[in-house]
Every structure is written in C-alpha cells, then in structure tokens.
Design a protein that fits this description.
heterodimer, A: about 100 residues, alpha+beta, elongated, B: alpha+beta, three-stranded antiparallel sheet, 3 helices, about 40% strand
Chain lengths: ~100, ~190
C-alpha cells in the first residue's frame, strides 16, 4: 500500500529538482544548456582583450562566484569596454555556470 | 486489465531504460577530445578573428593554486597568457617559465593586480608567449612528463604547477583542436 506514496514522493522530489540549479538565460534547456548571448554594447572602439568572470550553482542550493562585468574587465586589464556577452551552461539542474565575457581595450 | 498504479515503483525494465538514457546522454561528455565549443569564444573583426580560451585550471603546485587563460588574434604571432595565483604567502613573480622535456622558455610577466581573497593573496599576471612555442608546450606528450607552468619569483625559486596526467591528455587534445582552428583561420 505504501508503494504509491513512495513513488509519489520520489516524483515530487524529482519535479522539485528540475528547477534547482537554474541560471539566468534567454532560453531554457532542462536537460542541457550551453548558449552564448549578448548582454551590452558600448560606443568604444577596439577589442583586443577578453576577460571573463564566473559564478556557479550546485542543485540550486549553493551559488558562489563573482560574475560581475567589473571583475571580468579587471581580469584582462580592460579599461574601455567594447561589448559584453554572457555564456550560460548547465546539466540536468544539477550544476549551472554563468560566465560574463567582456571585450575591450 | 492491469490495475497496477502508474505511481508504482519502476520495474527492472524501466531501470534499464533510464540507465540507457543516461549512458546515451553522457556518452557525449566522454568524447570530449573533439568537443571544444564550450572551451573558447571567438570574435571576428575587420582584421581577423580574436580567440579567447577560457580559464584552464587543474594545475597543482605546492604553494597554492593557479589558473590561466589564453588570448590570440589571428594576425598575432603570439598568445597573451594571463594567469592567476592564489597563495597564502605572496610571491613577487617577474617571469614565467614553460617547461616540457627539453623545451624551456622564459618570458617576462606584467602584474595586473593584487588583492586579498579570504586569507589568501590573489595575484593576476600577463605575459606574451610566442605562438609556436606555446603550441608545442600545449602538445607536450605525457611520455615526456606533464608540462610545467612555472611563474618565477624574483627572490626565490620557480613555483611549479603541473596538471594530472589523465587531465592533461584530455586537455592537450582539446587545445590541439583549438590551435589547429586558429592556424586554419590565419589570414593568407
């Protein structure tokens, strides 16, 4: 008699897990996400330097990192930002990564 | 008529179906040697294409942790290597030595910034490394020992960072694909 309740519990847990490690993204991929998208453009010219910053989430429980534009620009010594992209990746809601990619001089 | 609840515990057949699904899904991850799209980004401009290989970690040393990333424009004859050191004690690094078997190259570095990260020092440096030399270093065969990424502190010996052999075999294969791609897109 208990079996249906156990299965229901497992199903509910699985359903709740589906939205665990989600990350801001223009498109949603439940099983697998790996996409790049635009974030910002400026009037500055030249983009011979690239810098990144990153944050990650595990099961939607732990989220750490510094995915700021400032941090990405600093990592490559960029003082004039040309444009900014984002790179989002995730697998099965278990782990999700959010990268900010800054181009500039 | 089958009165069995659809919420009942899955049968052994269902288990095999799930296992088959996950094996099929993750088999793509096993063949990482050829899947490199997630490791770099590129941007085309009027002169050519700028490539940026995301931060590479997995190199371990006795003094702390290190990661590095690579930038190259298709018109450049060099890579810009930017690396981060995370150490308990701050080292004044003034050059970078890349070692693989008989291959040894030392280039000067420029410090980008120093900051505190918890109880550790986070230092960021950049260096320009000849493209051919760096490509040879990234293709260092495991038979020659894994390559050494060695920032050299001015008042002490080199800080050695080495990857694990298994990790290096995979990474080396991936870097080869990206480096070949860059060479193929060089302006004629």
């Amino acid at each position: 008699m208990k079996r249906p309740f156990v299965s229901l519990g497992v199903a509910c847990a699985a359903l709740l897990m589906t939205s665990c490690a989600q990350v801001k993204s223009p498109l949603t991929g439940f099983i697998y996400t790996d996409l790049k998208a635009p974030m910002a453009v400026t009037d500055n010219t030249g983009s011979s330097k690239v810098g990144t910053s990153e944050a990650q989430s595990i099961l939607g429980i732990l989220a750490t990192g510094d995915a700021s534009i400032e941090s990405a620009a600093k990592s490559a010594g960029i003082t004039k930002i040309h444009h900014v992209d984002e790179h989002v990746s995730g697998i099965l809601g278990i782990i999700a990564k959010y990268k900010v990619v800054v181009y500039g001089e | 008529m089958n009165n069995r609840s659809i919420l009942a515990i899955p049968t052994r057949g269902t288990h095999w179906a799930f296992l088959l699904f996950f094996l099929t899904f993750f088999s793509g991850s096993v063949a990482v040697g050829q899947r490199v799209g997630h490791l770099f980004v590129s941007k085309t401009d009027t002169a050519g294409t700028l490539y940026y290989i995301y931060s590479i970690d997995g190199f371990k040393g006795e003094t702390g942790r290190m990661d590095f990333d690579l930038t190259r424009h298709s018109t450049w004859e060099h890579f810009v290597v930017r690396f981060t050191l995370l150490e308990k004690e701050r080292s004044e690094v003034d050059s970078l030595r890349l070692v693989c078997g008989a291959l040894r190259a030392t280039v000067p570095v420029r410090r980008l910034f120093v900051e505190r990260k918890g109880a550790r020092w986070k230092q960021r440096y950049e260096a320009e490394v000849d493209a051919d030399l760096l490509t040879r270093w990234t293709q260092c065969p495991v038979a020659d020992g894994v390559p050494r990424f060695s920032p050299v502190a001015s008042r002490s010996t080199a800080l050695d960072f080495r990857p694990g052999r298994g990790a290096w075999k995979r990474l080396s294969g991936q870097l080869r694909v990206i480096m070949d791609l860059i060479e193929l897109n060089k302006p004629g």
